[in-house]
Amino acid sequence: MKIHEFQAKQMFRRYDIPTPAGDVAFDAARAREIASEIGQFPVVVKAQIHAGGRGKGGGVQLAHSLEEVVSHAEAIIGMNLVTHQTGPEGKQVHKVLVEAGSNIEKELYLSLLPDRTTANILIIASRAGGMDIEEVAARTPEQIIKVQVNPLIGIQPFHCRKLSFGLDLPASVVKEFTQMVTRLYQLFVENDCSLVEINPLVITRDKRILALDAKMDFDDNALFRHKDIVAFRDLDEEDPLDVEASKYNLNYINLDGGTVGNMVNGAGLAMAVMDTIKLAGAEPANFLDVGGGATAEMVENGFKIILSDPNVKGVLINIFGGILRCDVFATGVVDAARKMEIKVPVVVRMEGTNVDAGRKILAESGLKLFTATDMKSAGDMVAKIAAA
Ligand code: GDP
Ligand code: MN
Q1: pLDDT score at 132
Q2: CA–centroid distance, residue 351 to ligand 2 (Å)
Q3: Bridge partners of 195?
Q4: What residues are paired with 315 via a beta bridge?
Q5: FRET pair for 384, CA 20 to 30 Å: which of 53, 62, 158, 288?
């Protein structure tokens, strides 16, 4: 789960990680209030969306007066912000962070993330902060410093020294930097983060360290023990169908550009079905694994979610009846189909426990369903339908 920059900075403050003074505003009047509380210019007005690259897209503006704060806030709130991370359709902005401007001497890069190969926590830093770090890594890899921290030992002074030397920090900020990285590591571990990224981390002209930007991502599987973080969730930033699916505990991911909706039980089978759809020349519109132990109700909700995707031109249902028996599954499909209007053709392929009873339920339902007996013919059938 991702959170906004202003929320990440609230967490930073709890750990005494230095950030500029500021607050979030949902309208220009509040933005003006915050700026006058800050009491000095320039003030920075920053679009709050779950995507980076806002600066280049016009979502970060400096203001030199209260009037400018108001005009920037009015321009940014409600704008459709397009960055390289939002995709061409962009993202609607609902709020801005208004914070004290900083006198920047140097922009650095710093991030923490789990390294799955070594099972360590990896700290990445670079002197070339502020811009696209992917580009720095590709063109000038020698400018990227990596420090592995074994989580059983935790962060040690030598890790921080390695980072400080690599970043070529002035001696006067090394102590403050060491404290900051140590606290950042603590924040990372205590909150089950999957990413903390500060780009840029700045050194100011008066030689202070400051987190100017803040990006955080959390391990969804650990959210049950962090109610305070779950409270940061912003449904405006998530795909509406993904939000609906998460209510029913369905493993659903909406995929851009596809036209074949599919519902499968078991993640491996779901991957195989997506391959089958592509082999047949079509594109899957989603990933949906209802799970091995799905109930008729889950099948019903999954089917409803697929059918409410306007891009779906055809649906392929592929079920292996194991724990979820074919008759239970068929009942779920029929119940869902009766409750809503099905405007697209549906191909069903199932095998396994009680398959005959399941086929009978589908056949006697009076619904217009196409049936297939093997995966290849099911894929070909639905691809033909979606292309028509
Ligand atoms: P991002 O583009 O979404 O990553 O947003 P950032 O928070 O990183 O802001 C983009 C850029 O705006 C930074 O790299 C800075 O160069 C600039 N910026 C942000 N805050 C300030 C500030 O307080 N003063 C000045 N002069 N520039 C700022
Ligand atoms: Mn940034």
Answers
A1: 82
A2: 50
A3: 217
A4: 261, 346
A5: 288
Question: Which residue among the candidates 197, 237, 252, 300 is catalytic per the annotation?
Answer: 197
Q: Is 142 a catalytic residue?
A: no
**How do residues 172-212 score in pLDDT, each as one tens digit?**
999 999 999 999 999 999 999 999 999 999 999 999 999 99
Known catalytic membership, residue 197: yes
* Per-state percent for the chain, helix, strand, coil, to nearest 5: 40, 25, 35
Residue ranges lining ligand 1, Cβ < 6 Å: 44, 46, 52-55, 60, 101-102, 104, 107, 130, 199-200, 212-213
Query: Minimal CA–CA distance to 250: which of 202, 304, 213, 189?
Result: 304
Q: Tell me, what's the pLDDT at 335? A: 86
In which band, very low, low, confident or very high, does the pLDDT at 324 lie, cut at 50, 70 and 90? confident
Place of tokens 């009873």: 357
Residues 6+ apart with CB under 8 A from 112: 121, 122, 123, 124, 184, 185, 188, 193, 195, 196, 197
Amino acid in position 235: L
Q: How far is the CA of 212 from the centre of ligand 1 (A)?
A: 7
- Tens of pLDDT, residues 291-300: 877 777 888 8
**Domain architecture of the chain: domains with CATH:** 1-20+103-236 (3.30.470.20), 21-101 (3.30.1490.20), 239-387 (3.40.50.261)
> Ligand 1 test: best mutation among 48, 72, 84, 213, most atoms within 8 Å of CB?
213
Residue matched to tokens 């999954």: 302
